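User: Can you help me understand a structure? I only have the sequence.
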Amino acid sequence: MERRLFDPEHDAFRETVRAFLTKEVLPYYEQWEKDGIVSRDAWRAAGRQGLLGLAVPEEYGGGGTADFRYSAVLAEEFTRAGVTGLAVGLHNDIIGPYLTGLATEEQKRRWLPGFCSGEIITAIAMTEPGAGSDLQSIRTSAEDKGDHWLLNGSKTFISNGILADLVIVVARTTPEGGAHGTSLLVVERGADGFERGRNLDKIGQKSQDTAELFFHDVRVPKENLLGELHGGFVHLMTNLAQERMGIAVAGIAAAEHLLEITTRYVKEREAFGRPLARLQHVRFEIAEMATECAVTRTFLDRCIADHSDGRLDATHASMAKWWATELQKRVADRCLQLHGGYGYMNEYPVARAFTDGRIQTIYGGTTEIMKEIIGRSLLG
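Assistant: Let's start by predicting it. Here is the structure, written out as tokens:
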């Protein structure tokens, strides 16, 4: 079905993204996978190309547009290229809204120009060893010392954890913590007592630096409080819908791309003297996946349009995230199976997509949490 979501400006932006990936990312990506981290040069190149800070006002060096369709284009093209290490979506769509929506004028002038140029790489530290989806159980704490906060605790599974120059840390600022006692504190590279642990060894997304972070009596200036004191939980809930939409967009894009490459493969690969595509079982598999992708794409495009207009609610964002990522997981498994032994080889894109995509149903809120959100909205 013809997509009616994008305007000519979005199509032109898509060509810009593809050219950037071809020139600045794909020639180096295998080395980044081996290194377990991307080059900072790629971040600066993304900044020069105008791919960072799309929604940041122009006066701070950004693109000046809140149209989420541009972010959707980025997510789709990075996914199709198999590029998971350069976490532009995390930077733009998850962390960006905290800085543009909560930062003071002084904070915006201090951080946003570098955010848009790629000189400042960002991360957000929510998850702890004992607190994942349940953000009210975090133990990292910040004690008010008059002119600064004294931050102690640890975080894990932090994307961009090694490269990050600016980390938004979720911490308890009251002894009780919870929904009314957490705040967002910005910790900058080089702060005394701020240490990075190991670059975690994951089954996929090898070039995406994911780390443990440790805070030992870190003095965080009072001017690095982001948003309202004790308002961290509300701020987090406000921005989660966009995070989940970004993950959902990548999920359907991955499923569609896997279907494309597998359709080509079964037409070319022969078994029992004829192409795999001549076998009824293979045709049924392709037919089922194509139908699921088409139905999901229709719903996702509606969600993208609603979000661009400011009308998408948390329930439908959760539906999109759950459905698209579970579809991605199913399609990756079925497409690998259709590739047979070759699907298990890393030189085939389907193998990397299988491992890279497995995290999609976990981060940004697990499938189970998405169902709980939807269920509560319907049943109270």
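Now, to help you interpret it: The beta strands are 122-125, 141-144, 148-159, 166-172, 182-188, 194-199, 210-221, 225-226, 270-271, 274-275. The CA atoms of residues 193 and 216 lie 5 Å apart. Let me know which part you'd like to focus on.
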